[in-house]
């Protein structure tokens, strides 16, 4: 694994940089941070009616698709109509999860001071309680992005997604675990904050889980009641087809959310870091870690909306609390900064990125001696100037 070899560690002396690695001075990294701060400030200054109207349109569309989907599933004797209902409900759940729920709970619309779009009280249409997701994602992942043994999103506690994770025979099942996580992704997200792997290792007590489990049972119970009991019962003689349709829409949402998220975090070229490398990070160094620890997916405007604009994962990691629909206009400026400082800007089409992800899942399942390392040349930052 190549990662950031930062200057706030003892410098490696005369050790040569890995081939094709980028070498930046401490001052360059801090200047990069200032330029990104300026980009953020310019974007914040422009927030207003355009952003308000955008999120209202998305919410209106999401609700429209949900009503249409549930209504069309009352016509199961016409399979094309029923399938259209499943598709519409799937779109509704994807929008609720990606472009509304994920982004609202990041605080992207808190500035509007609207109760229904306030990150502190918002709940989404999925089994994971919002408060638990905000801890595991907003805090743990976005603070410790791609730091091994700190960012639990690296493998979600069940997968080997980086060469820096020590191989064990358990990981021979990597592809199977990944497939199951993809199909049942909302449940995996719900269980994520329990840190089951740390329970097994004895690093966490069962007693620590009681409040989390109560919240999960309460939230998942409501979701199961709504999708698998109430709406199927309301459809009367079409109970079974409505049940199947609701389950199908949830699975479609799971497959899509998993694929978009994994494309932004695990394709080839994305770099990981150690705790030592990131100790006493400056703002510029934090920005740098986000830039080279993420990847984008190219696509159409509709594709970006359906991905919650997480197709701009680099920009999201840099500015997680800015309205995500602003990322497409910020992306060319971020890419220009990467070019200016000789940094990679990892982007590619969906099939390229997801193919790379699944290739990594299979490759990291086998013992390291059986496969060739695909470590990515990293970034070396020169020593921090001594204090005067």
TrEMBL record:
Domain (Fatty acid desaturase): residue spans on this chain: 81-347
Domain of life: Bacteria
Listed InterPro entries: FA_desaturase_dom (IPR005804), Fatty_acid_desaturase (IPR012171)
Keyword Transmembrane helix in annotation: yes
Keywords for this protein: Membrane, Transmembrane, Transmembrane helix
Pfam families attached to this UniProt entry: FA_desaturase (PF00487)
GO BP term, pick one: lipid metabolic process
Signal peptide: none
MF (Gene Ontology): oxidoreductase activity, acting on paired donors, with oxidation of a pair of donors resulting in the reduction of molecular oxygen to two molecules of water
Protein name listed in UniProt: Acyl-CoA desaturase
Species name: Speluncibacter jeojiensis
């Amino acid at each position: 694994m190549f990662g950031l070899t930062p200057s706030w560690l003892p410098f490696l002396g005369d050790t040569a940089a890995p081939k094709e690695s980028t070498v930046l001075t401490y001052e360059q990294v801090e200047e990069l941070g200032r330029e990104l701060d300026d980009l953020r400030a310019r974007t914040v200054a422009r927030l207003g009616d355009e952003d308000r109207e955008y999120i209202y349109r998305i919410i209106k569309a999401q609700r429209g698709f949900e009503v249409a989907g549930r209504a069309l599933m009352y016509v199961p004797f016409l399979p094309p109509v029923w399938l259209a209902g499943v598709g519409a409900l799937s779109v509704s759940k994807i929008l609720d999860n990606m472009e509304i729920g994920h982004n609202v709970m990041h605080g992207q619309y808190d500035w509007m001071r609207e109760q229904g779009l306030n990150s502190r009280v918002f709940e989404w249409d999925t089994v994971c309680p919002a408060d638990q997701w905000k801890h595991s994602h907003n805090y743990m992942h976005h603070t410790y992005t791609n730091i091994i043994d700190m960012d639990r999103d690296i493998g979600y506690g069940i997968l080997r997604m980086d060469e820096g994770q020590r191989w064990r025979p358990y990981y021979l099942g990597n592809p199977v675990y990944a497939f199951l996580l993809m199909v049942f992704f909302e449940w995996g997200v719900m269980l994520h904050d329990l840190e089951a792997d740390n329970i097994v290792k004895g690093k966490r007590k069962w007693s620590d889980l009681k409040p989390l489990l109560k919240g999960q049972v309460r939230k998942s119970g409501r979701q199961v009641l709504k999708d698998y009991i109430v709406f199927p019962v309301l459809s009367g003689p079409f109970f079974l087809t409505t049940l199947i349709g609701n389950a199908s829409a949830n699975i479609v949402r799971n497959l899509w959310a998993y694929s978009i998220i994994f494309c932004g975090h695990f394709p080839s070229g994305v770099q990981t870091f150690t705790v030592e490398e990131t100790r006493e990070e400056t703002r510029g160094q934090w920005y740098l870690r986000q830039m080279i620890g993420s990847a984008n997916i190219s696509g159409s405007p509709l594709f970006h909306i359906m991905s919650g604009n997480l197709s701009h994962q680099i920009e999201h990691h840099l500015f997680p609390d800015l309205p995500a629909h602003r990322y497409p206009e910020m992306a060319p400026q971020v890419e220009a900064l990467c070019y200016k400082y000789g940094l990679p800007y990892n982007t590619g089409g969906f099939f390229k990125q997801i193919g790379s992800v699944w290739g990594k899942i299979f490759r990291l399942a086998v013992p390291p001696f059986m496969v060739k390392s695909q470590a990515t040349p990293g970034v070396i930052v020169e020593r921090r100037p001594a204090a005067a």
